[in-house]
Amino acid sequence: MSPRCSWLYRLPGRALLGGIRTLPTTRCPGLHRSLTSSAHPPQICIVGSGPAGFYTAQHLLRHHTQAVVDIYEKLPVPFGLVRFGVAPDHPEVKNVINTFTQTAHSERCTFLGNVTVGRDVTIEELQTAYHAVVLSYGAEDKRLLGIPGENLPGVYSARDFVGWYNGLPDNRHLSPDFSAETAVILGQGNVALDIARILLSPIDLLKKTDITQTALDALSNSRIRKVWLVGRRGPLQVAFTIKELREMIILPGTRPANNPSDYQNLGDFIKDLPRPRKRLTELLVKAALEKPGEKEALRRSQSDREWGLRFLRSPVAVLPSEDGKKAAGIRLSVTRLEGNGENAVAVPTGETEDIPCGLILSSIGYKSVPISSSVPFLHKNGIIPNSMGRVQDAPGLYCSGWVKRGPTGVIATTMTDSFDTAQSLLEDIKSGALNYSENRLGASAIRELLLLRGIQPVSFSDWEKIDAVEAARGAEVGKPREKILDPEEMLQLVCR
Amino acid sequence: MAAAARLLVTSRCLLAGSRAWYSGGQRIRSWLEQRAARLYSSEGKVTVKFVNRDGSTIVTEGKVGESLLDLVVEKNLDIDGFGACEGTLACSTCHLIFEDHIFEKLESVTDEEMDMLDLAYGLSETSRLGCQICLQPFMNGMTVKVPESVADVRQAVDMGKNS
């Protein structure tokens, strides 16, 4: 396949198609109809190039032979949370990038990076240029703890912390404090376990990943030896999945330090649990109660780092150091559960417990934000109201991924959900609910606007140049890549 | 490019073999049997019928020793999103449902595969991951079903918060 060039340098076929608009076809309805299927392909754009965006694009391109699908991305680099969220020591999860790259190489797909929808170009402008707009921009905000001391140095949101070690440009100056012995993570999901693993992993393991050099240097000097993961509810309500738990239990140089009494009465409940929860709970119980074999016992006794789950604790306040300049601990309210299973509610008992610590990470979930006042948004749930991906009361607008269903699930969840949205859109094309008889200019119209506004979009072949530089820099130090942290540097690499 | 992809596919199957090898004596035996099958019946072909999500069927032929994921990739079968992590046991998108009499004869499942199956949609009693099942002569003529991904089922098993 020939490299995809910037529109500025190559006259694209689509611009020629756009020119057809000037032909007097609209004055001749019969001719117009006969042209619709071949001359006017449905022009679709997707906002966001994470898994939701790419899986939606993949399904549309695969199941419609003519649809043109353009992907807009705020950053100069694609792949969203696959690049900036997936833990650096989970390279196998990043294999999805290979499929995304195939999608981006399609003749009918254009990647336009470095374009912030809502700032550089509006949703209304996209709706004028395209027949359909799919919102797949994810959940870029964090949920706040809402407790005193939350803003003290030493307290970070999981989102910022993960962004920092994964090279998200916005978080490159975070510089977290690793000078204390104990870290507390508020939350018991997979992100919380990812963070615990990064904090406790032997540095030699991390050196072989694509973690940023900045993070590697800071973690090399880290004094953190203990990590507690705190949850409001009990062991039957943890949100992480079993693969991540298993990894944590066998993490080299690290031993689990869990309180056996938390698990002793679970036996009766386990047999009636649905399979995933059952296996997860069995593993928790085994790790906490079963006497380890000789080899494992030796391994644990030789480990100088430890981690553990703390249940039935809800954060009340961050405790400041004596000089008041940074976090020195966290006050937790002791809770008890009302109700059973997934719906159990934590109720404060009135007791509190203080844990001294120098690093507090709040991992209580991500949050989507509205992109425009013209797009409906449910603030309470943090999602765009939709039915199978069709945005409520907004024909031609669709959504997929976290902004559609909330920030939960693994990549496969987002994959099926994105396929569903693409399927809804294809059904609307077929049924005529989405009318594409009128020609739309698609990317060429948007490029003109961007040119006027001084915005230079980054193409997929531009990204491949950045990718090559990152891979080469990584190879020098034995890593799969060394991510570039500064968007300006990325843009200079593709400067034309 | 295609050659590189095939190399990747082959090494994945060998990797699956070596993973089994580490897991204990019984595994070594079956792994050797598998290797032997690959060596001695290199001409051996196995016909597999896939029943896709929409109920349509695809009949194809694979080589003894290659995994069901290899087969789908190699023959470019039209199964949406199949094998997203490329056989590294990091997702459940190559989930397949087997016939009882075939399922009973499959190599025992590892904890790691079970962990991923836990997150699969439409999990059944005879579910396995296609990347972990290598074709063997006894599988000739078998039918495997690609599970439907129904929104309700999915939400019920969706417990991986902010992953």
Automatic annotation (TrEMBL), chain A:
<feature type="binding site">
    <location>
        <position position="73"/>
    </location>
    <ligand>
        <name>FAD</name>
    </ligand>
</feature>
<keyword id="KW-0285">Flavoprotein</keyword>
<dbReference type="InterPro" id="IPR021163">
    <property type="entry name" value="Ferredox_Rdtase_adrenod"/>
</dbReference>
<keyword id="KW-0521">NADP</keyword>
<feature type="binding site">
    <location>
        <position position="52"/>
    </location>
    <ligand>
        <name>FAD</name>
    </ligand>
</feature>
<feature type="binding site">
    <location>
        <position position="409"/>
    </location>
    <ligand>
        <name>NADP(+)</name>
    </ligand>
</feature>
<dbReference type="InterPro" id="IPR023753">
    <property type="entry name" value="FAD/NAD-binding_dom"/>
</dbReference>
<keyword id="KW-0560">Oxidoreductase</keyword>
<dbReference type="InterPro" id="IPR055275">
    <property type="entry name" value="Ferredox_Rdtase"/>
</dbReference>
<keyword id="KW-0809">Transit peptide</keyword>
<dbReference type="GO" id="GO:0016491">
    <property type="term" value="F:oxidoreductase activity"/>
</dbReference>
<feature type="binding site">
    <location>
        <position position="81"/>
    </location>
    <ligand>
        <name>FAD</name>
    </ligand>
</feature>
<dbReference type="InterPro" id="IPR036188">
    <property type="entry name" value="FAD/NAD-bd_sf"/>
</dbReference>
<keyword id="KW-0813">Transport</keyword>
<protein>
    <recommendedName>
        <fullName>NADPH:adrenodoxin oxidoreductase, mitochondrial</fullName>
        <ecNumber>1.18.1.6</ecNumber>
    </recommendedName>
</protein>
<feature type="binding site">
    <location>
        <begin position="188"/>
        <end position="191"/>
    </location>
    <ligand>
        <name>NADP(+)</name>
    </ligand>
</feature>
<feature type="binding site">
    <location>
        <position position="244"/>
    </location>
    <ligand>
        <name>NADP(+)</name>
    </ligand>
</feature>
<feature type="binding site">
    <location>
        <position position="402"/>
    </location>
    <ligand>
        <name>FAD</name>
    </ligand>
</feature>
<dbReference type="GO" id="GO:0005739">
    <property type="term" value="C:mitochondrion"/>
</dbReference>
<feature type="binding site">
    <location>
        <begin position="409"/>
        <end position="411"/>
    </location>
    <ligand>
        <name>FAD</name>
    </ligand>
</feature>
<comment type="pathway">
    <text>Steroid metabolism; cholesterol metabolism.</text>
</comment>
<keyword id="KW-0274">FAD</keyword>
Automatic annotation (TrEMBL), chain B:
<keyword id="KW-1207">Sterol metabolism</keyword>
<keyword id="KW-0753">Steroid metabolism</keyword>
<keyword id="KW-0001">2Fe-2S</keyword>
<keyword id="KW-0443">Lipid metabolism</keyword>
<feature type="domain" description="2Fe-2S ferredoxin-type">
    <location>
        <begin position="46"/>
        <end position="150"/>
    </location>
</feature>
<keyword id="KW-0813">Transport</keyword>
<dbReference type="InterPro" id="IPR018298">
    <property type="entry name" value="Adrenodoxin_Fe-S_BS"/>
</dbReference>
<keyword id="KW-0408">Iron</keyword>
<dbReference type="GO" id="GO:0008203">
    <property type="term" value="P:cholesterol metabolic process"/>
</dbReference>
<keyword id="KW-0249">Electron transport</keyword>
<dbReference type="GO" id="GO:0051537">
    <property type="term" value="F:2 iron, 2 sulfur cluster binding"/>
</dbReference>
<dbReference type="InterPro" id="IPR036010">
    <property type="entry name" value="2Fe-2S_ferredoxin-like_sf"/>
</dbReference>
<keyword id="KW-0732">Signal</keyword>
<dbReference type="GO" id="GO:0006694">
    <property type="term" value="P:steroid biosynthetic process"/>
</dbReference>
<keyword id="KW-0153">Cholesterol metabolism</keyword>
<dbReference type="GO" id="GO:0005759">
    <property type="term" value="C:mitochondrial matrix"/>
</dbReference>
<dbReference type="InterPro" id="IPR012675">
    <property type="entry name" value="Beta-grasp_dom_sf"/>
</dbReference>
<keyword id="KW-0411">Iron-sulfur</keyword>
<comment type="similarity">
    <text>Belongs to the adrenodoxin/putidaredoxin family.</text>
</comment>
<feature type="signal peptide">
    <location>
        <begin position="1"/>
        <end position="20"/>
    </location>
</feature>
<dbReference type="Pfam" id="PF00111">
    <property type="entry name" value="Fer2"/>
</dbReference>
<dbReference type="InterPro" id="IPR001055">
    <property type="entry name" value="Adrenodoxin-like"/>
</dbReference>
